[in-house]
Amino acid sequence: MSKVCIVFASMTGNTEEIKEILVNTISKYTEVDVYEMDMVGVDVIEDYDYVLIGSYTYDDGDIPFEAEDFYEELEGLDLSGKYASCFGSGDTLYVDFCNAAVLFEERVIEQGGVIIEPALKIELSPSYDDQKEKCVQFAQRVIEYMGGGQSKTAN
Ligand SMILES: Cc1cc2nc3c(=O)[nH]c(=O)nc-3n(C[C@H](O)[C@H](O)[C@H](O)COP(=O)(O)O)c2cc1C
């Protein structure tokens, strides 16, 4: 069974809500470990085959404070053999909508990781405008990539 973790940064809870939907969906297939980005170092990733990185976006399309160290440290990590996908909440009032997720995605590629799904970008809370389904579908595509589709109990 694939080992999956989610590492996320959320200030007002929107990215955390996305994380919850991803956990609820993926954990029907396999176990998911969750880490808050400012509480762990990047070496936590080394134990997992699949990594989902979530971050909201701050000033002018930037990586937020809570995610800065993790983002910088990633530059020293060899991600070859790792499968990853990024997600985050943002606000379309800003020019660089959800750019932190894109910056993480680019860094994963630079470090040799494979992006299995393009970044999931959610406008504020996933509970607005029925964006929950977008999160569920993203999680389902991740599960399919892992060779899944059946629930954990069915295996
Ligand atoms: C000062 C400030 C700057 C922001 N800059 C951006 C931005 O450049 N791009 C974007 O998509 N969202 C931007 N946002 C919006 C946040 O990413 C958005 O509120 C998000 O839902 C916060 O996620 P969280 O609840 O997980 O902390 C900004 C918010 C604040 C307060």
TrEMBL record:
Cofactor(s) required, per the database record: FMN
Q: List, for all copies, the residue spans of the domain called Flavodoxin-like.
A: 4-143
| Keywords linked to the UniProt accession | Electron transport, Flavoprotein, FMN, Transport
Entry GO MF terms? electron transfer activity; FMN binding; oxidoreductase activity, acting on NAD(P)H
Q: Does the keyword Manganese apply?
A: no
Its function? Low-potential electron donor to a number of redox enzymes.
Family matches, as PANTHER family: FLAVODOXIN 1, FLAVODOXIN 2
Q: Which family does it belong to?
A: Belongs to the flavodoxin family.
- The identity of this protein, by name, is Flavodoxin
